[in-house]
Amino acid sequence: MSIEIANVGKRFGGFVALDDVSVSIPAGQLTALLGPSGGGKSTLLRIIAGLERADTGRVEIDGVDATNLPPQKRNVGFVFQHYAAFKHLSVRRNVAFGLEIRKRDKDEIRQRVDELLALVHLEQFADRLPAQLSGGQRQRMALARALAVEPAVLLLDEPFGALDAKVRKELRDWLRRLHDEVHVTTVFVTHDQEEALEVADEIVVINEGRVEQIGSPDQLYDEPANEFVMRFLGPVTQLGDQLVRPHDLQIQTGESTAAGVPGQVTRITRIGFEIRVDITTADGQAVAVTLTRNEFLTLGLSVGDTVHVRIAPNSPTTTVADHGRAPSLATSA
């Protein structure tokens, strides 16, 4: 089921939550709404679900105008960050709840619940209460419950935000595999850039109620539309007036320094398989460069060394906005 959001606006008093937002979400795609807290992404998700009413604009689901439809008539499944489980019901009864209130046949309910518990790998926990599950298991239960009624659209509001980093990583891998199996149109809200880059087919970057850029993870990372997207989607550093990814900088030593900016190595930090080299340029600018271990060993760097640093050819850069002017996108030659 495709989703069309056209010129949607939403205010809460004097606060503009969404400002003329238009987004097209193709059927069967996993789309991330990515942005900082308070940027409007959860408001947009709730408008799609019918839990909030837009002040202006239109929402269509599979070609049907859903702008004024109540949530129960939109055929969407919604998963909240904090599970919203029925604490007194078993895992099986939680998953079955939506089917039971729709008065489906008992055999049909049992078969559907068994299929879903197998899909989310919770068969052995069917008779436990939610409190007896781990956070990751409770979130998988919530996803199974949302899928039970076979929604046309699955909406996830920061589904892994309450979990620790290791469990989040496991669950986002699982969500991607699950989506590839069930192919339901899925929209999820996140402020975690890595999560969006790893899981989504397409990312909608939202900031201060406006869409900054829409594209695939590769497009947004390699071709950011402006300074905000460049800064928000992945690590950045600045060399002169150019924002650049730290791994797109090259350190030069010895005689091969003609094209580089002179500076001094002020700190060297190993972060797992990467080495971060902090350099202070001759004009006092702090620059961070990320190297692989082999690159670092080849250069033989030490704190205090005089080096030159340059942007690698064909690397995406963004010119830092000056005096309120819009930033421009450039590619180094």
Task: Kindly describe this structure.
The chain is α+β, with helices and mostly antiparallel strands and 333 residues long. It has two domains: 225 residues, Rossmann fold, CATH 3.40.50; 96 residues, Nucleic acid-binding proteins (OB fold (Dihydrolipoamide Acetyltransferase, E2P)). Keywords: ATP-binding, Cell membrane, Membrane, Nucleotide-binding, Sulfate transport, Translocase, Transport. InterPro entries: AAA+_ATPase, ABC_SmlMolc_Importer, ABC_transporter-like_ATP-bd, ABC_transporter-like_CS, Mo/tungstate-bd_C_term_dom, P-loop_NTPase, Sulph_transpt1, TOBE-like. Pfam families: ABC_tran (PF00005), TOBE_3 (PF12857).
Adjacency order of strands in the biggest sheet: 6-7-8-3-9-10
Structural category is alpha+beta
Distance between the termini: 43 Å
Write the CATH fold name of the largest domain: Rossmann fold
Please, how many domains?
2
Tell me the number of helical segments per DSSP (H or I, 4 or more residues long).
9
Low-confidence stretches: 323-333
EC number: 7.6.2.9
Domain ABC transporter: 3-233
Protein name: ABC-type quaternary amine transporter
Pfam families: ABC_tran (PF00005), TOBE_3 (PF12857)
